[in-house]
């Protein structure tokens, strides 16, 4: 079991060493901007390292929306980040499921996800797995509820899309963690990555605020059970820097049997 953390992009390998992490996740650009990622000076070191690398796409990427001014740049940005991530030897690119605007038909959002993968195929194909992540809030979200996730997977499953399960997002989004891996796999057939996070907020709050394991509203044994059941690599996206994340990694290694 590979366990790591979301870290500052300045020196991911040093951050991994500080946390005794097997994996790192980081952004290549401002997560709130449309900037195209540039080549990194540490690309060779990242590719050669035994540390697994995951790249998180900017939060603003929303390929589901019917707003052309957001959807089209989002598709292009997803492709650019996929190519840049592949150049670093990354295992996957994590992309939030996105949403449609208030009053819009959810079906259009699922179809736009399908078109995003078709767009990628016409542009030479995705060079690494895109891992769609469940999200915490929004009534018009593609991947907050598992009913919607099933509809999304009907649209994109045939393209080889992967899935990233975030425990905080599931809890805040109103999905029980008990037995969640089996429920996800019944829909997607796979769990490629776990984001193991506690939540500062109550069940079904719709609020995406992560906490360290055992410090928030989720029983840490439920998170451990998710990790154990999934058997997938794990990233903690928790606060507290080296100290906080190291403690979370150590807890998962001890209790999940890694």
Description of the structure:
There is one protein chain. The chain is an alpha/beta fold and 258 residues long. The chain has a single domain (31-233), classed as Divalent-metal-dependent TIM barrel enzymes (TIM Barrel). It has helices spanning 12-19, 43-48, 68-87, 106-122, 146-156, 167-173, 180-188, 220-230, 241-255, and strands at 3-6, 23-26, 52-56, 92-96, 130-133, 162-166, 193-195, 198-199, 210-211, 234-236. It has an 8-stranded parallel beta barrel with strand order 1-2-3-4-5-6-7-10, surrounded by 6 helices. The longest helix has 20 residues, at 68-87. It is globular.
Short summary:
The chain has helices at 12-19, 43-48, 68-87, 106-122, 146-156, 167-173, 180-188, 220-230, 241-255, and strands spanning 3-6, 23-26, 52-56, 92-96, 130-133, 162-166, 193-195, 198-199, 210-211, 234-236.
SSE map:
Blueprint: E1 3-6, H1 12-19, E2 23-26, H2 43-48, E3 52-56, H3 68-87, E4 92-96, H4 106-122, E5 130-133, H5 146-156, E6 162-166, H6 167-173, H7 180-188, E7 193-195, E8 198-199, E9 210-211, H8 220-230, E10 234-236, H9 241-255
Parallel strand pairs: 1-2, 1-10, 2-3, 3-4, 4-5, 5-6, 6-7, 7-10
Antiparallel strand pairs: 8-9
Helix pairs in contact: 4-5, 5-7
């Amino acid at each position: 079991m590979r366990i790591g953390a979301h870290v500052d992009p300045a020196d991911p390998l040093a951050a991994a060493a500080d946390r005794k992490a097997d994996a790192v996740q980081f952004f290549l650009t401002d997560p709130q901007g449309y900037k195209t990622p540039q080549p990194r000076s540490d690309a060779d070191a990242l590719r050669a390292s035994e540390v697994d690398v995951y790249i998180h796409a900017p939060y603003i990427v929303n390929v589901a929306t019917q707003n052309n001014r957001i959807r089209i740049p989002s598709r292009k940005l997803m492709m650019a980040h996929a190519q840049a991530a592949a150049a670093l030897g990354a295992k996957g690119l994590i992309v939030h499921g996105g949403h449609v605007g208030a009053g819009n038909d959810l079906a259009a959002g699922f179809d736009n996800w399908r078109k995003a993968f078709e767009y990628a195929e016409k542009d030479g194909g995705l060079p690494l797995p895109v891992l769609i992540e469940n999200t915490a809030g929004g009534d018009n979200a593609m991947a907050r509820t598992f009913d919607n996730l099933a509809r999304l997977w009907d649209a994109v499953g045939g393209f080889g899309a992967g899935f990233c399960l975030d425990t905080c997002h599931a809890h805040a989004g109103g999905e029980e963690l008990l037995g969640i891996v089996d429920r996800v796999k019944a829909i997607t057939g796979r769990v490629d990555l776990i984001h193991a996070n506690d939540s500062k907020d109550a069940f079904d709050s719709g609020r995406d605020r992560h906490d360290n394991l055992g410090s928030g509203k989720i029983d840490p044994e439920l998170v451990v059970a998710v990790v154990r059941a999934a058997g997938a690599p794990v990233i903690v996206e928790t606060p507290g820097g080296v100290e906080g994340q190291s403690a979370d990694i150590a807890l998962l290694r001890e209790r999940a049997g890694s």
